[in-house]
Amino acid sequence: MMGFGTVIASMLSVAILLLAFYVCSSGGFYMADVLANSVMEMQENENEIMKTEIEITNISANEAGIFVSLNNTGSTKVGDYDYMDVIVKYSNTSGIAKTIWVPFQGDSDALEDKWTVGNISQIW
Asked: Distance between CA 113 and CA 70 in Å, rounded?
C-alpha cells in the first residue's frame, strides 16, 4: 500500500506541472498575439504617416493672428483636426528664437494660442 501512495503523489505532481506549463504557455501565446497585433497597427500608422505631405503655400500676419495656407500634396486625406497640433518656431522682436505648441481649437471664440480651420477648398 505504501508504494501506491507514491504513485498517486507522482501522478498528482505531474498533473500540476502539466497544468502550470499549460497556463504559462497560454499566457505566452496570448502575449505574442497581442504584441503581433500592436506591431501591425503601428506599421499601418507608419504607412499613413509616410503618405502624408503638407506644403506651406502662404503665410501672413496681422493684429488678429497668423494665417497660413497649406496644400496637401500627399495621398492621405487630412481631416481629423482634433488630433492635430501645430508647433511654431519663430524669432521674437529681440531676435530670440521661440518654439510654442499650439493645440487645435474647434468652434470657439477664445482662439489665443490655439489654431482653427479657416477655409478648406479642393483642387482637382
From this structure: 19
